[in-house]
UniProtKB/TrEMBL annotation:
One of its GO terms (biological process) is amino acid metabolic process. The lineage of its organism: Bacteria, Bacillati, Chloroflexota, Ktedonobacteria, Ktedonobacterales. It comes from the Bacteria. Belongs to the class-I pyridoxal-phosphate-dependent aminotransferase family. It comes from Tengunoibacter tsumagoiensis. This is Aminotransferase class I/classII large domain-containing protein.
Length: 491
């Protein structure tokens, strides 16, 4: 009976709707929301693989559906239950509600925003009141580090002709990379506004170097599924993009045999984009797999080919420390290190996505100097306040090593809960062919849908919005979910 009435509301949006909905039950509002969800998916389905691409398309579907629900005055709690946005990868520390055990204990994850200095004094965090002590400490440290820089004849308030960041912070970051055993100094390091900015500048700098050398064609090899932004960046700078689909039986990781075959066939491949711990799949390369990849590359290098590796370390730090160490140690061989450019960030492993703290480490200081043109001709000077905050945060992490452990534990909690939720949904609706268990890293889940299902049908049936596999260069029978912004509902 209500379905006809709900359809009438959808088809004749009038100024009387607020009054009408104020008299309807939650069940009736829920039925209306589901009709709105079906209608908007029908509108957007033909546009899925056009325009801005699948990731932005799914985010747009979610946002526009929410706006329609608000215009119909549907209750906020129903909207939250029926529209679950798992497209965004970032953790919003202010929205954490999980407290395992006693309030104030090491497993009270609501405190993370306060402990990481994001929460303002007195801010309410799901019932926990922030002290704001770390927030204030960071600002006090910024002043002390400016004094330190001035004492070392470096003034952040004037033009920096190199634009790669202040020497003290770069020395600290070199020490960070030395933890993996790499023999690097500040000359190997350039600061960047997050990992994406670092990747962009490295690609631009290498492209400039190729042109100076009169290289007529240079290609970047991109194993897929993978993070797609570097492909767009590389295309902008004149790279040919060589996409290489990986296999499920290899956990969607590039194999040494695949690499060997493509290097034989495509002689212009000059760069491998290599995500050590993968977005979207949440699988990570083993040390043996990394050594096998580097072994193939070094064999071709011995034949006179220069093939760089752009190693994306965005999710190093979200997994088990001992396993991350072994992965990174696999690069510590002279010929490998010489042609590897590492891109690091605090965005994911410390949830500082709004701060944009990143850096680029070139194994060869001569390559660091060669690509510096991207910095000096790109930003003129890295922002002074940003550098001071970067310095303060770095020292916070040195003083509180337990923060990294707590964040890894929190990620594990959410991933485990989300996988359990997917299994419950699958038992009821049979939507998934396989729900993958990750390598205990990243903030994602990558799963395979059953034949006939895709991200749109899953959103319509469950209210959970994920990103289709085509958003990562793969097929839409796969889907990526984020555990990030929204807590996992518990039964």
């Amino acid at each position: 009976m209500y379905q006809e009435g709900a359809s009438h509301l959808v088809n004749s949006h009038t100024t009387n709707e607020a009054a009408i909905l104020s008299t309807t039950s939650f069940e009736e509002q829920r039925a209306l929301l589901r009709q709105l969800r079906t209608a908007i998916l029908q509108r957007f389905r033909p546009l899925l693989n056009s325009g801005a691409g699948p990731i932005r398309m799914m985010a747009r579907v979610v946002e526009e559906l929410k706006q329609e629900c608000y215009s119909y005055h549907i209750a906020e709690e129903i909207i939250q239950e029926e529209i679950v946005n798992r497209t965004i990868g970032d953790i919003n520390l202010r929205l954490i509600t999980e407290c395992e055990g006693e309030a104030g204990s090491s497993t009270d994850y609501r405190m993370l925003a306060d402990e990481l200095g994001l929460a303002l004094p007195g801010e309410d965090l799901a019932g926990y009141t922030a002290t704001g002590e770390t927030y204030q400490w960071l600002r006090a440290q910024m002043m002390e580090y400016e004094r330190l820089l001035l004492a070392n004849k470096f003034d952040l308030r004037v033009y920096d002709i190199y634009a790669v960041g202040n020497p003290i912070m770069r020395e600290w970051l070199a020490q960070e990379m030395q933890k993996w055993g790499y023999p690097v100094t500040s000359k190997n390091i350039q600061m960047s506004l997050g990992a994406m900015d670092g990747i962009d500048r490295a690609l631009r700098g290498l492209a400039y170097r190729y042109r100076v050398e009169n290289k007529s064609s240079f290609a970047m090899l991109c194993p897929e599924p993978g993070f797609g932004v570097p492909e767009w960046q590389a295309s902008t700078y004149g790279y040919r993009i060589e996409r290489l689909p990986t296999l499920a039986e290899h956990h969607f990781k590039l194999s040494a045999d695949q690499l060997d075959q493509v290097l034989q066939q495509q002689e212009d491949i000059s760069l491998l984009y290599f995500t050590i711990t993968n977005n979207p799949t949440a699988f990570a390369y083993t040390p043996e797999e990394i050594r096998a990849i580097n072994g193939v590359l070094n064999r071709y290098r011995a034949q006179g080919r220069e093939i760089f590796v752009l190693a994306d370390l965005a999710y190093i730090g979200t997994g088990k420390p001992e396993e991350d160490y072994e992965r990174m140690a696999a690069f510590n061989e002279p010929e490998t290190l010489k042609q590897t450019i590492f891109v690091s960030s605090f965005s994911k492993n410390y949830t500082l996505t709004g701060e944009r703290f990143g850096w680029v480490t070139s194994g060869d200081p001569e390559i660091a100097a060669a690509i510096s043109v991207s910095w000096s001709n790109g930003v003129a000077s890295l922002p002074g306040e940003w550098q001071l905050r970067f310095m303060a945060y770095y020292q916070l992490f040195q003083a509180r090593p337990w923060l990294a452990d707590k964040l890894r534990s929190f990620y594990r909690l959410r991933r485990t809960r989300f996988i359990a939720q997917l299994h419950r949904i699958n038992a009821e609706q049979s939507l998934f062919e396989e729900i993958y268990v990750d390598d205990d890293a990243t903030v994602y889940n990558w799963s395979k849908l059953k034949a006939g299902e895709d991200a749109f049908s899953l959103f319509e049936k469950t209210g959970i919005a994920g990103v289709p596999g085509s958003g990562f260069g793969y097929t839409d029978e796969y889907i990526r979910f984020s555990i990030g912004v929204i807590p996992i509902a518990q039964r």
